[in-house]
User: Which sequence fits this backbone?
């Protein structure tokens, strides 16, 4: 599997506003997510805990699902959500605020939702190859290739982004998929107290989750036991408090970018100097790790 990622960011950016006919979707399948975040990368329990340990609990966001036909369900705010027994199931991923980016060879920067760790100036991941780099990201698009599913690399090519997927051989060391039978308690979690989630469905759908909302799910993920629905209550409570109190460069940048952004896909009304200054001010000078450069 060989990729050409320079100048792309196709798997890190929601580029539906640029090329809706070419962009893929993770809305398909038996259990569509309740939110409209594009390309959310699910994290393992240990990865969620690692982000929390690094003070980045405010960079995480939960995802709940509509039920498939024969799924167990739980009612939250009058909405039936997919459940395992009496617990709504969820995953945790990285937040995607609007950023001024020009991915896949476009000439004009636009406001597009992008991974919190994507540097909008270099289109590189700030945690690539580091201890926090998620398994889902490091193995992409291996599982797509294994299943014969279209990759974001190919969608970028279809959208005029040049050659991106240079070798489509599936890696020999590809880990188990995030949603396989082994996922319960490791990537797919059950929230133990659904009665505490009043208002959450509406806030997920309107992209208005509070810090406490997000912290509840982060806590439950960290407190989960792999292979089961059981949750260590003490571990959950401690992780929830740390996530709620997190105040990282990433969380602050999300707030600042969101306040400055206009509608999805709108051109960025900043000249290059002002834009680069903003990236330095909101991310680099605020503590964001640098990017490694292209080989």
Assistant:
């Amino acid at each position: 599997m060989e990729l050409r990622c320079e100048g792309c960011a196709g798997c890190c950016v929601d580029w539906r506003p640029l090329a809706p006919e070419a962009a893929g979707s993770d809305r398909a399948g038996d259990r569509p997510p309740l939110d409209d975040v594009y390309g959310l990368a699910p994290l393992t329990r240990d990865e969620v805990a690692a982000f929390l340990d690094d003070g980045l609990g405010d960079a995480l966001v939960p995802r709940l699902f509509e039920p498939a036909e024969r799924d167990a369900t739980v009612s939250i705010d009058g909405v039936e959500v997919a459940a395992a027994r009496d617990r709504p199931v969820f995953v945790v991923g990285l937040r995607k605020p609007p950023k001024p980016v020009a991915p896949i060879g476009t000439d004009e920067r636009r406001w597009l939702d992008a991974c919190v760790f994507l540097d909008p100036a270099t289109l590189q991941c700030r945690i690539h190859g580091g201890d926090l780099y998620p398994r889902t990201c490091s193995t992409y698009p291996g599982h797509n290739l294994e299943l014969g599913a279209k990759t974001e690399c190919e969608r970028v090519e279809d959208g005029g982004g040049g050659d991106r997927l240079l070798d489509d051989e599936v890696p020999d060391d590809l880990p188990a998929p995030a949603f396989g039978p082994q996922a319960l308690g490791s990537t797919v979690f059950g929230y133990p107290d659904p009665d505490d989630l009043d208002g959450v469905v509406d806030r997920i759908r309107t992209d208005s989750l509070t810090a406490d909302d997000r912290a509840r799910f982060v806590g439950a993920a960290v407190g989960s036991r792999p292979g089961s629905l059981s949750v260590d209550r003490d571990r959950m409570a401690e992780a929830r408090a740390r996530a709620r109190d997190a105040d990282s460069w990433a969380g602050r940048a999300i707030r600042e970018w969101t306040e400055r952004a206009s509608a999805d896909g709108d051109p960025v009304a900043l000249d290059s100097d002002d834009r680069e200054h903003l990236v330095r001010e909101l991310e680099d000078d605020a503590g964001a790790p640098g990017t490694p450069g292209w080989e």
About this structure: The chain has a mean pLDDT of 89. The chain has one domain: 2-284. The first helix runs from residue 45 to 53. The chain has nine helices and eleven strands.
